[in-house]
Every structure is written in structure tokens, then in C-alpha cells.
Amino acid sequence: MKTLDYLHLDASKAGSVVDGLQQLLADFQVFYTNLRGFHWNIKGHGFYVLHGKFEDMYNDAAEKIDEIAERILMLGGVPENKFSEYLKKAGIQELSNVSCGEKAVKSVLDSLSVLIESERKLLSQASEANDESTVALLSDYLKGQEKTVWMLVSFLSCDCKE
């Protein structure tokens, strides 16, 4: 007995969605770890704002990691759980000892760009597979990430001379 038997999804099409979700899982795991490091190590101007924001972001990423892993299981896959494998697969690079707020925010923007690109591609694959649940999940992710990108770009754009 398989979950896919009850979901009315084509197994081969679901398999391509699982592959995309595995990629997304790897990217989110590295992103999560980078956010933890930014939260721990941030210093200087903007510390109070960024320290709290990075905590919110890594908590959000942790929730998404769990949702992605569970979706992989629902579609008949097995989510990867080894960090060494995530690092081989991820499009997001592992960072350490970033304490400058501007550098950390730029890294977050770069990571969100990678995630958004992957999610848009996967959204298309999921749509072709008639996998509306994955489409809905990714649409929700994109909505939040686009707002975060706008806010972080605005944060970096201030050139007040007052």
C-alpha cells in the first residue's frame, strides 16, 4: 500500500517533483545553518533588528524544512538527512563567521534568490504533475519570500544624510 495510490498522482511525475523537493531541502538546510550563524555572530549597526530578524528567519526555515521533508514522504520519496549530501547538492553556499550586517543581509538576499528560482521551476513541475498540494506549498513560500526580499532590499537602500 502506497500513499500515491490514494492521491491519484502519476508516480513518474511525482518522482520528478520529489527530486526537486530534495534539491529544495538541501538548499533550505544550508540556508537555515547560515541564518543561525548570522544570528549568533552579528555585530555593529543594526544588531538589535538583525539579531531578531535572523532568529525569525531560521525558525521559519526550520518549519519549511519539515514541510518539505514530509511532502517528499507523501510523494513516495525518502528525504535526505545527511548534511554532507546537502552540501553536495545545494546551490546555496555554506558560510561561517559573518558578523557584518550588510554582508549577512546580502547573503540572505542571494540565498533567497536561489530558493525562489528553484521554487518557480519546481512549481512548474508540480503543476504539470497535477500536484496541487506542492503548488500551494511553493506559492505560499514565494509570497513570503518576495515580501522578505523587498524588505531586505529596502533595509540596505537607506542612504539617509540627516
Please give the CATH class.
Answer: Mainly Alpha
Label the CATH architecture: Up-down Bundle
Instruction: Round the mean pLDDT to the nearest integer and report it.
Output: 95
Q: Say how many strands there are.
A: 0
Secondary-structure element pattern, one letter each: HHHHHH
Number of individual domains = 1
- Give the overall form: elongated
Strand percentage, roughly? under 5%
Kindly report the CATH topology: Ferritin
Reported for the largest beta sheet, the result is: none
Helix percentage: over 70%
Number of distinct helices: 6
In short:
With 162 residues, the chain is mainly α. The chain has six helices and no strands.
Describe the structure.
- The protein is elongated and about 55 Å long.
- The chain has a single domain, classed as Ferritin (Up-down Bundle).
- The chain has 162 residues and is mainly α.
- It contains six helices and no strands.
- The protein has helices at 3-7, 11-41, 47-74, 83-89, 101-128, 132-157.
- Helix 5 runs antiparallel to helix 6.
- The longest helix is centred in the first third of the chain and has 31 residues, at 11-41.
Write the layout of secondary structure elements.
Blueprint: H1 3-7, H2 11-41, H3 47-74, H4 83-89, H5 101-128, H6 132-157
Helix pairs in contact: 2-3, 2-4, 2-5, 5-6
